[in-house]
Design brief:
223 residues; alpha/beta; five-stranded parallel β-sheet; four-stranded antiparallel β-sheet
Length: 223
Amino acid sequence: METRILIVEDDTSILMGLKFCLEQENFLVSTAVTGKEALEKVKESFDLILLDLNLPDMNGFEILKQIKNIPVIFLTANDEEVSIVQGLDMGAEDYITKPFRTRELISRMRAVLRRRNVFTNQKIQIGNLFIDPSSAKVFKNHEEIFLTSMEYKILLILATNPTVVFTREKILADIWDVNEDYVNDNTLTVYIKRLREKIEDDPNHPKIIETVRGVGYKIGEIQ
């Protein structure tokens, strides 16, 4: 089955060049040059959206708010840390700045698609916490709790590998598929703290996400 990609980009030279490269990799590519056109097209079924942050009629953050259940990678010349973290927190899977190497972009696209496919049908329960990757929802004591995209990704990768201790470096470099210069060690500490406040019965004595001192994090052995 072909993988369907939507490119949303108002620079036609970038748009057509990227479309050509992706089609050479056997992706089925559709394009949009405005936010309005993009929102019309996402009514169709896509596996991944490449979304420029700065469009003539609206910005990518506005568009992202209206996209449901389709992974998004931002493409933008804006490399400010606050914009990157905002985009990831809002639900973007990754963020790559212009100019970029096409091979790097394709590699990161495949990482996002691979992660989505692996997790789609695995329902996970940890104590009173239930994770449904098919809908990207998390429930505690049968009530849904809201997690940001980054919080959800951290929880999901730990929960699907319950016997593995993840170093902080591995989470930063391998799991998020983003530039760790922006999602740095201090940022990870903040995400872990916020996540524990939402999922743990006692965030000061966490049992779901345990700290392995001097190493990283792992899922606790909850009966």
